[in-house]
Each structure stands twice: as C-alpha cells, then as structure tokens.
Amino acid sequence: MGGSASPQSGSYDEVESVVRASRALMGIVARSLADALESVTLPQFRALVVLASSGPQPIGVLAAKLGSVPSTFSRFLDRMENAGLVERQPSPGSRREILIALRPKGAAIVQEATEQRRAAMRQVLQGVSKEDLAGIVAAFDTFSRAAGEPAPETLLILGL
Q: What Pfam families does this protein map onto (predicted)?
C-alpha cells in the first residue's frame, strides 16, 4: 500500500474520517483561541502571531502580511499600541523606518493560546494507547508531508 496516491484514491469513508479529525483539531484550535479573543480581536491576534513568529516588522511589511492597506493599518496599530500589545520603535538600519514590535502583554496572549492548544492536544493523546498513539503520529506525519506546508497567509486567517 506504500507509494504515492493516485488521484482516485481516498474513498468517501476515508475522506469523511479525515474531515472528522480536522473538525476535532479545529475545535481544539477554536477553544485555545477563546480566551485570547476575549481581550483582542481576531485581526489583532493575527498581527500578534506574525510579530511573535517573525519579530519586529516595518509597518508596510506587517500590513502586507496581514492583507491590509497601510493607510488604514496605522489606526489599527494605534489601537493595539494603546492597549499595550505592540510598540513602534525606530529601525536600527534606517532612521526613517519604524518597526512594530511585540510588547510583553501581546507576547503573553500568543503564548497562552499556544500553551492551551498544546495542553489540549496532550490531554487528547493521553487517552490513547501507546500503539494507537504511534499510529496517529505516523498518520499525521504522512498527512503533513502529503498536504505540504500551508502558506503563512492561509494560517493567518485563523490566527495561527
């Protein structure tokens, strides 16, 4: 059964099984974001995730990564800065460039959501036998390779 899959592979039951698993995973993701979304909006969380994963960004670059227009993005950043989530700072490479950096409060929101997601995954996996766990890990590794790495902008829709 090894080798590459043909375009016809994947019966209805197999596809439905994967769809059910994806719903279970999305439920975990949604629950892990619930607390964060009580203190920030999803677009704000998306910006925090970009800054947490990429470090300080020029305003225009950050706006582009989030699919925003720089002219309206400045007001969005004002609100985030006023909330203590991010800060503007001069770029060490250019006096004219301003970088947007994560503040500790913003970093803590991303970290907490990530920790909640990992804890929920850990809890689910603790209820699985060692044999099934090995199969799950192997299946997810195989699925991840087959699906490929999603584009960052795809994950940002969900704040991941």
A: MarR
CATH code for position 144: 1.10.10.10
Range of the domain at 140: 14-156
pLDDT digits (tens, 9 = 90+) for 46-58: 999 999 999 999 9
Domain annotation covers residue 94: yes
Q: How far is residue 81's CA from residue 156's CA, in Å, rounded to a whole number? A: 20
- Non-local (6+) Cβ contacts of 106 within 8 A are 48, 51, 52, 80, 84, 85, 86
Q: Is 46 inside a domain boundary?
A: yes
H or E element in which residue 100 lies = strand 94-102
102 to each of 23, 55, 114, how far by Cα in Å?
31, 8, 16
Question: How many domains are contained in the chain?
Answer: 1
Virtual CA dihedral for 109, 112, 113, 114, nearest 10 degrees? 120
Neighbouring residues of 9: CB distance < 8 A, sequence distance ≥ 6:
none
